[in-house]
Amino acid sequence: MLNERTRGLSRRLALATWLLVTGCSLLSLPVQRGLAPPKSSPVPSTQAPLPTPFAPHEPTQAPPDVGRAPAEGTAWPSPNTYGRSATPSVPIPPPAQEFTFPEGSLNVLMLGSDRRSGIGFRTDTILIASIQPAAGLVALVSVPRDLYVYLPGYTVSRINTAWIYGETLGYPGGGPQLLFDTVRYNLGVPIDRYALVEMSGFRQIIDVFGGVEVRVACDFTDWRMRRPDLPEQAVSSWALFTVPRGVIPMDGDFALWYARSRSRSSDFDRARRQQEVLRALYREALQPEVLTRIPELYRALQASVKSDADLDDVLALAPFATRMEPAHLRSRFIGRGQVSTFRVPASGAAVLLPKPDAIRALLEEAFAPYAESEATPIPVEIVAGSNPDLATLVQERLLYAGFDAALVEGEPSPDGASHLLTPAGASLDAQTSILTVLGLTERAVVVQPEADASAQFRLQVGDDFDPCFDPAGSAPSG
Questions:
Q1: N or C: the chain end with fewer CB closer than 10 Å?
Q2: Please, is 74 exposed, middle or buried when counting C-beta atoms within 10 Å of its C-beta (0-12, 13-18, 19+)?
Q3: Model pTM?
Q4: Domains along the chain?
């Protein structure tokens, strides 16, 4: 029997996991049509963050329950079984080998739509959350909206069109089923649950927490309304707003704008910003005072989230949540190394062709259970220099990569440069991995006598360190 303190911690962690699952869709909704800023450039603004001018919508009706059809071993529907389309400009690929997950795993598809009128819409944000209690990990995988894939029973198209085609072409199970089948056919990932969320509850959830502290790895500049009461189509209503790298406090409006904006950046960059906000929300949900707010938060989610997961599903995750290491929350991105650019001859549309082997390798690494030797992440101690926020960003980057990174007191860098202090005989593979993750060279390595090292690795963060990294690449950009 759990004691009261452990039960409270379990409920907080279960809530944190639920917020992680549902929050992805809350913050992922893109800017609506008609609300994009004008193309001409007004004078940049340095004023304090302003609320975004997007009015909330009524919650979207939940899609019908969906299953996993066709069953394993059953033939997939042939092209143009549903609807009629010209011969695709690229060959239809064979179905991907389906992944096998440990018993008790839960794969959730989080979706953000472009809110098009009619019965269907494009899912412009697609994120897979694989929750694996038996393996002790949660993997977040961002899928680019322009991935050019086979929609079973129809043709090759962007993955973000699967929902609307499923709704309009009479696909069994409608839009949800065609999207889930598309993910399974092309990526080999079966989906157990979905979360389709409106943005109206996102501000409320963040503000109930009193805001979140987002670890912003890269400076970010994009258009933002100067004031919500100004006319949206007037050039003078908009200003370029910059978020500097660092640990940035954000209220609901600020966090929503930061996670949704994409006028001046790529979808790959937006995926990184979304996961930064998600991780901030997860950390905030672990605070002890959150326990008293569970009813309020759950009501806010109910008003905004349409999902086939309920509170019982969430509470069932509590025993796992109490055991999960922070370093076991994996953030991965299908990026430039897993796709190639392609222009569709008939339409001129720019899309991303999947590289099946590269995507398979990324997903295998993202979903892989920890080996016995990896059950405890490699510890890395981080000593801040003159910029504590910079050290926090280093910690977050190492946590992304699965290291047990902790901020500690210690002697700062003597020359202002970043140094990785490592004892003689330390694992060269681990050392190389740390350097690669942080974009450092071997010149940063300082070998220490075994007796002088309080941990296997200690990083002295210098002012020269650049925390920005490219989520679409295989290594940080710094």
A1: N
A2: exposed
A3: 0.74
A4: 1-376 (3.40.630.190), 377-460 (3.30.70)
